[in-house]
Amino acid sequence: MTQTDTSPETNSLSLPAHHGPSEHSGGKGILKQPIAVWAVAFACVVSFMGIGLVDPILPAIANSLHATSAQTELLFTTYLLITGVAMFFTSWLSTRIGTKKTLLIGLAVIVVFAALAGASGSVWEIIGFRAGWGLGNALFISTALAAIVGAASGGASQAIILYEAALGLGMALGPLVGGLLGNISWRGPFFGTATLMAVGFIAITTMLRSKDEVKPTPTKLTAPFRGLAKPGLRVMASAALFYNMGFFVLLAYTPFALADLGLDAAIPLGLIFTCWGIALAISSVWLAPALTNRMRRSTVLIAVIPLLAVDLLLVALFVKSIVAIIVLVIVGGIFLGILNTVLTECSMEATDLPRPVASSAYSGVRFIGGAIAPPVAAALGNAFGAAVPFFFGTLVLVVSMLIIVIGRRALRRADGMIENAEEEAEAIGLGDAA
């Protein structure tokens, strides 16, 4: 199979080597990275901490600020919605001002709005400041993925694994830090994030050298939207929309399901989701590559998404058992880690679009899915009981899997099966028909 150039100068994606240990070789290879990559990865960890940070303090915020569960869930919604919408435009900005400047602007915005959230006097103020936080998050996250892929040694797949490892570690540390600081005050996690992001700002300022950047070709403002017209990316973005709904049902609503059973203290909730994040990180780095070394990426998705759906279904059926929920949340982290890595790899490899464009389009749609889930889950839980949000999560995951099954022919490039232009044209045509 002919491979395309993977150098940053091409600003394009490589065709994935479908099988073989060279692509996914873990261990020493993935750890031998330039210091700039580790600086960005550290900031990624802190950035992703911001997603799970509020999980253990959701009940505390609701109690302290006299907010309903639906209002408190909006802390996720405004954050993720603004992140998702803004991501469609980050490639336009980053290709004009450069990767480093975009990263630093994003980090600075996060520092300011995380600190303001900590100083808030009402739940609505926090909701508003989380929206500003989401804008900074969009600038940082979408650019960070492209920066790591461009600068890391070992090719795009190892870089994506490193990025997903940072995601998993951030998801693991976020609830832990949130629980520990939230046990002192619900304001603590916000101020803690602002401090850590300031450290990330300094690290990137000193370690990521602008002179090493390859000046990218400026992209049009409409590029991510036009990118979604590509069958492969459209299938992946649509599947990710529903997948992220299921993801955030598990992440955002579970604290309230546990609070209904009397488990609402910040530290225990933080420890539960720390174990969940550790499972997610481990499966991102080791299980996902092991599976994609042995089967096509689309096959992994079709096999593992139903397992996550079953996991959420079991949470719904055993929603009155604290032990069952805890075990199933942690097991769910294993499936989520695999899926996060493979979904990201597929989206980055499904087309020949420039990395920043593919990342902006895919991430934008994915985060919008995450924004939809928390308020819907809260509304369903308040109206029909704690089990129903998890039934909803099961349903959207089934939809995600069906999208991949129906559109699988459009994913032949992501699966490493496109060998020539004629086959690619055929796959695109079939994808459009699907």
UniProtKB/TrEMBL annotation:
The chain crosses the membrane at residues 35-54, 74-93, 105-127, 133-153, 160-184, 190-210, 231-253, 265-288, 300-319, 325-343, 364-384, 390-407. CDD domains: MFS_YfmO_like. Residues 1-14 have a biased composition (Polar residues). GO terms for molecular function: transmembrane transporter activity. InterPro entries: MFS, MFS_dom, MFS_trans_sf, Tet-R_TetA/multi-R_MdtG-like, YfmO-like. Residues 1-26 are annotated as: Disordered. One of its GO terms (cellular component) is plasma membrane. It is found in: Cell membrane. PROSITE patterns: MFS. Pfam families: MFS_1 (PF07690). Its main location: membrane. Keywords: Membrane, Transmembrane, Transmembrane helix. The keyword Acyltransferase does not apply. Residues 36-412 form the Major facilitator superfamily (MFS) profile domain. It is a multi-pass membrane protein. This is MFS transporter. It comes from Humibacter ginsenosidimutans.
